[in-house]
Amino acid sequence: MIEGIIIKGIGGFYYIRTQDGIIQCRARGIFREENLIPLVGDRVRIRISQEDNTGYIEEIFERKSQLLRPPVANVTQAIIVMSVKKPNISTWLLDRFLLMAEYEKLEIIICINKADLAPDKTEDIKTIYKNAGYKVISTSSKANMGIEELSTALKNNISVFAGPSGAGKSSLLNKVNPEFKLVTGEVSNKTKRGKHTTRHIELLNLEENTYVLDSPGFSSLNIDFIEEEIEVRDYFREIHKYGEHCKFLSCLHDKEPNCEVKKQVELGNINNSRYVNYLQFLEEIKNIRRY
Ligand SMILES: Nc1nc2c(ncn2[C@@H]2O[C@H](COP(=O)(O)OP(=O)(O)OP(=O)(O)O)[C@@H](O)[C@H]2O)c(=O)[nH]1
Ligand SMILES: [Zn+2]
């Protein structure tokens, strides 16, 4: 028996990366009885048949995490890619992606991409999000900026790249490893090319213990998985930090008196657009819960 990681699953077959190469496997029937479906990212123990070098998944090791979209196990990190221009950066979208990654308890790296198009704006955004408590890398696949830093950050992680269409996710991945040869370019071209090819989720191997997903994470930006308004506070790092000093433990930092968060917004220590987005997400959760 040897161990490995599921890098792909197609039509009942699983492809396991092991020390002996990639082995095609089936899952034992017992998993179906237990309602356990092997996922890409699962670390497994397999038994290999001597005859044809295919195998059976005998055991699935306990998952450290499980993403819903895409359905992948053991993802440790989200790289949130936003282009500063083309398309213009939307901090609302960025905060939305951050919220989802925080909810999933992933390590988070913000990538401000296409820095070549607007260096000053890139620096401004970088400062805002560094102050909020994030690791931010400015990158450009065109100008070869920040690629080393990104590669280093990927080490020993299973990373999912998230971000709006056209932000440059595939271009960055191709820079990190030119052998990936992911399709890049205009959105319209991509959908045309992608029409007749079924998409499978695949873990791309960068180096030992280092994988990236070939498809974007958090494709739906629906946040109805959040059950209580009060949870939103914890998904904004700086709001969470300052919020511990509010007068009321249950302070939502909205209309309550003696709110430390509002004070820090006025002092400029919490960025106003972050706070506005926070209030908006809060309102959204409140409205979902009315039904
Ligand atoms: N100026 C500039 N353009 C870039 C950069 N990175 C990517 N682009 C361009 O942006 C477009 C979109 O890049 P992709 O890598 O396909 O974007 P994506 O995020 O993978 O897009 P989806 O697959 O639709 O989610 C392409 O035309 C790239 O040439 C960059 O650093 N600078
Ligand atoms: Zn408060």
UniProtKB/TrEMBL annotation:
Binding site for Zn(2+): 246, 251, 253, 259
UniProt xrefs under CDD domains: YjeQ_EngC
Subcellular location: Cytoplasm
Class of the enzyme per the UniProt entry, highest EC level: hydrolase
Any Pfam family the entry gives: RsgA_GTPase
Cofactor note text: Binds 1 zinc ion per subunit.
PROSITE patterns: ENGC_GTPASE, G_CP
Alphabetical UniProt keywords: Cytoplasm, GTP-binding, Hydrolase, Metal-binding, Nucleotide-binding, Ribosome biogenesis, RNA-binding, rRNA-binding, Zinc
Major place of residence: cytoplasm
Residues in CP-type G domain copies: 64-221
Keyword Metal-binding tagged: yes
EC number(s) stated in the UniProt entry for this protein: 3.6.1.-
Domain EngC GTPase: 73-219
Positions of GTP binding: 113-116, 163-171
Cofactor (UniProt): Zn(2+)
Functional description taken from the UniProt entry: One of several proteins that assist in the late maturation steps of the functional core of the 30S ribosomal subunit. Helps release RbfA from mature subunits. May play a role in the assembly of ribosomal proteins into the subunit. Circularly permuted GTPase that catalyzes slow GTP hydrolysis, GTPase activity is stimulated by the 30S ribosomal subunit.
Family designation: Belongs to the TRAFAC class YlqF/YawG GTPase family. RsgA subfamily.
Quaternary structure annotation from Swiss-Prot or TrEMBL: Monomer. Associates with 30S ribosomal subunit, binds 16S rRNA.
Name the record gives this protein: Small ribosomal subunit biogenesis GTPase RsgA
